[in-house]
Give the backbone structure.
Amino acid sequence: MNELECMRTFVKVVEAGSFAEAARQTDTVKSVIAKRVNQLEEHLELQLLQRSTRRLTVTDAGTEYYERCVHVLAEIEQAKAAVHSTEWALSGTFRVSCNSSVIAAFLAKDLCEFRTQHPELQIELRQHDRFCDPVQEGYDVSVQPTSIPPGTLQKTELFPARRVIVATPEYLEHYGRPEQLEDLKNHCLAHNDHVEPDCTLRFEREGKPETVIIKPVVRTNTIYMLHAEIMQHKSMAMMPVFFIENELISGQLVPVLTNYAVSSAAICAYYRKSSFVPMKVRIFMNFLRNKYGNFPPWEQRLLVKHPEYASLLGRSGKPGS
């Protein structure tokens, strides 16, 4: 019996929630997964998992053993990283989950650039327009523009994802321009309920938080639906600047309620909570933070064309400020 391999398999089964899902994530036959866990239980003389036809339950002993396994495996990875840290070479498979808007705007190109810097790394990118738990679903990291509580995950903010309420000039000409937050209740709004499930829009004005609850005419978890709706002059919507940079620069979309700032949001990385973060996750997060910083390039380009939008983005109007 390879005890270390059996430990890794047991951890994967617990996190995946089933033998079948653990087999899928590791590209291993289900019977091999079950055999390794059985061998581990026989070796420890403990029942780690309770099996039934419908569900898999971790026993109390299994829970304690799982936590210790995670710590041991993290220490092993840390030891490997220490040996190779001077080389900064990454290899193996790097599995990333992200939503469609971030992938389309920049992350796809970023991952291609990242792999060029680390040619021995194999990249797997999967799109999810919902929150993806990287531990349960078998990813190294999930990149999300959300503020969902991390729970058993670690969350790191990478860079800001500032948002604005926008409409087309045609919409505003026909329906008028809102001047106060309460005016939004008299307008058609499309809403991304993946980001704000409770349909509450949060703003700041003169340093004080303000909120308004909306009743959207369109609810969706994909930004492409929001974009299609507003570009047909049918609605307004809260959109991230990175996704509508070109429309803002050209004037196809204009911000409204410019005396309010939308509460800050960020592109975040979610990954397993542990005393040791795998090197490929750490290097990838640093890569993104160094590339975008606190003043991402799409905001810089927008302010060159429209310096009057500086207050919306929390800037003085000069790139780099």
Notes: The chain has three domains: 3-84, 92-160+266-299, 163-263. Confidence is low (pLDDT under 50) at residues 317-321. The radius of gyration is 23 Å.
